[in-house]
Amino acid sequence: MAVIEVQGLTKSFRTSKTDPGLMGAIRGLWKREHTEVVAVKDVSLRVEEGEFVGFLGPNGAGKTTTLKMLSGLLYPTSGEATVLGFRPWERKDGYRRQFALLLGQKNQLWWDLPARESLELNARIYGLSQPEFERTLGELSELLSIKDKLSTAVRELSLGERMKCELIASLLHQPKVLFLDEPTIGLDVVSAKVVREFLRRHNRTRRTTILLTSHYMADIQELCERVVIIDKGTIFFDGRLDQIVDRFAGYKIITLQLAPSDASATADMTAFGEVVERNEGSLKLKVVRDRVIPTVKALLDQLPILDFGVEEVPIEEVIRQVFQRG
Ligand SMILES: Nc1ncnc2c1ncn2[C@@H]1O[C@H](COP(=O)(O)OP(=O)(O)OP(=O)(O)O)[C@@H](O)[C@H]1O
Ligand SMILES: [Mg+2]
Known about the structure:
The protein is of the alpha/beta class. It has 2 domains: about 5-245, P-loop containing nucleotide triphosphate hydrolases (Rossmann fold); about 250-325, Alpha-Beta Plaits. The protein has helices at about 20-30, 65-70, 95, 115-125, 130-145, 160-170, 190-205, 215-225, 240-250, 290-300, 315-325; strands at about 5-15, 35-45, 50-55, 80-85, 100-105, 175-180, 210-215, 225-230, 235-240, 250-260, 275-280, 280-290, 305-310. The strands form 3 sheets. It has a 6-stranded mixed β-sheet, sandwiched between helices. It has a 4-stranded antiparallel β-sheet with strand order 11-12-10-13, with helices on one face. The longest helix has 18 residues, at about 190-205. The structure holds adenosine-5'-triphosphate (ATP) and magnesium ion. Adenosine-5'-triphosphate binds near residues 13, 61 and 62.
C-alpha cells in the first residue's frame, strides 16, 4: 500500500469581496459579496514509502493548501486522501504521532522560551519520555550544528537557527511522513546546505517519506528524484526531474569559444540559432534540440572555433518557462 494516496482532492475557499474605497467598505457591512477560490482542484497522487517528492508550483498554486489537507489542518471540499491509512482530517491520535508538518513561513515554536524548553514542550505533547527526548535532541542538534544555541530564546535566534529548531521540533517524535513547506526559505547558502544534507540523510537512513515544497531549485535538484508540478490547483506534471528538461526544454545551449580578433566576433549568427549571450571571444547560442548536431557541424565548418560545449537549459529556466506558458 502506498504511504500517501490522494484521489480527486479539491479545496475551495469562500472569500468575501469588498469594493474599494470607503463606500465599498460601508456597503460591505450589510451586503457581502462572496467569491469562490478553487485553491486545489482534483489532485490525485500516490507516494510510496521512502520517496522524497518535490512539490513545485508558482505562488498561489495550491501547494500549502494541499499539505494542510494532508496534515488534517484543512477539510477538503471534495475528494479523498489517506496517509499511512488515515484520513488526515479525522485527526486521529494514531495519525498525529506519525507525521509532521513544517511550515517554513510560520513560527511554530514558543517565541519567548529558550529553544530547548520549547522543544521539550513539543516532546511532552507527543508523550516522549525525558531520556528519549534528550537522546533525540542531542542527535538532531548535533547533526544540524545548533547545540550551542539551545538555551537562546526562540525570538532571539537567527532565521536559519530558528528553522533548524523547527526542524528538530517536527522530528522529535520520529514521524514516518514529513510535509516540509519551504524549509529553507530565507536561509543563507551554508545553512540551506546543512538543512538539505540533513534531510537527505534522514530520508535515506530512516526511509521517511517526504513531500517538500520549495522555490529554490537547488533543494529540489539535490533531494528529489521525483517532482510533482502544480499550477492553479491542478497537477500538470508528475515524474522524474530530468524528464522535465526532456519534455519542456525544446532547445539546448551551445557555447562557443572563438579565435580572438576575428571577424567571427561580429559574424551574423542568426542562421545557426538565437544568440543569448555574447562576450569577447565567446558566445552562447540557443538551438532547437534536434538541430544541435547539424548546427555544431555547420559552426565547425564555417567559423574558427577553439572550443565548444553543449548544455541543457538550466532546470530553473525550464520551470520558469513552463509557468510563463501557464
Ligand atoms: N484561508 C484561505 N482563504 C481564502 N483563500 C485562500 C486561503 N488559503 C489559501 N487561499 C488561496 O488559495 C490559493 C492557493 O494558496 P496556497 O497557499 O496553497 O498556494 P501555494 O502554492 O502554497 O503558494 P506559495 O508558493 O506562494 O506559498 C491562493 O489563491 C490563495 O490565495
Ligand atoms: Mg505556500
